[in-house]
Amino acid sequence: MPEALLTHRGGCHCGAVAFEVDAPARLTVSECNCSICRMSGFLHLIVPRTRFRLLRGGEALSEYRFNTGAARHLFCSRCGVKSFYVPRSNPDGYSVNLRCLDRSSITEVSVEPFDDDDRAAAEARIRHLSVERDS
Prior knowledge:
- This protein is mostly beta strands.
- It has helices spanning 35-40, 119-126, and strands at residues 6-11, 18-23, 26-32, 43-48, 52-56, 61-64, 72-76, 84-86, 93-97, 108-114.
- The chain starts with 5 loop residues before the first strand and ends in a 9-residue tail after the last helix.
């Protein structure tokens, strides 16, 4: 039986961007070793698009695309923090940075590796995360 979902709140450093995401209290996140994730320390909580809500700051977001251009890296234009984005691996969902969530709603975190050197296999293991399932 899937774990119940609750609402986690998060945002950027300066507070211009705020969002909510529905996910369990016990989270499993991915740590990717690609250049941008490694350099920024991003820990991925991937959710279906329907479980993510931008509360404020859409006008403050700047977008960066590189390589294939598939991923939409969204940064706060004031403080530079990437608190969420649309990943190449799961373009029908969002990847939320665990480090940008309020920790009060999180009871446990497990970190799993995402090996960008074997991207096809790594993507296959997480593709299901952005698919909405009936509870």
